[in-house]
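I hope you will forgive my troubling you with a question about protein structure. The matter concerns a single protein, recorded as an amino acid sequence and a row of backbone structure tokens. Please examine both parts with care and let me know of anything in them that strikes you as inconsistent. Thank you for your consideration; the sequence and its tokens are set out here:
***
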Amino acid sequence: MFTKADYEGYFLVIQKSEKKMCDDLSEMIDSLSDFEMLKELIMIREDEVRHGILVDNLFKLLEPA
């Protein structure tokens, strides 16, 4: 059975991963000029931002009521 600390640790790993993905995608987007590729990468980055919001929501669920 997982403890609250286990969940927090796991969510922190996910949160870090999502931030790195956003940062890496932003760097790629800034360096490209191919419009079709930019469009796709921007959509992927938007998904990563949404994932980050979902992780933030998970942290809120761990907070005491």
User: Anything to note?
Assistant: The mean pLDDT is 94. The first helix runs from residue 4 to 31.
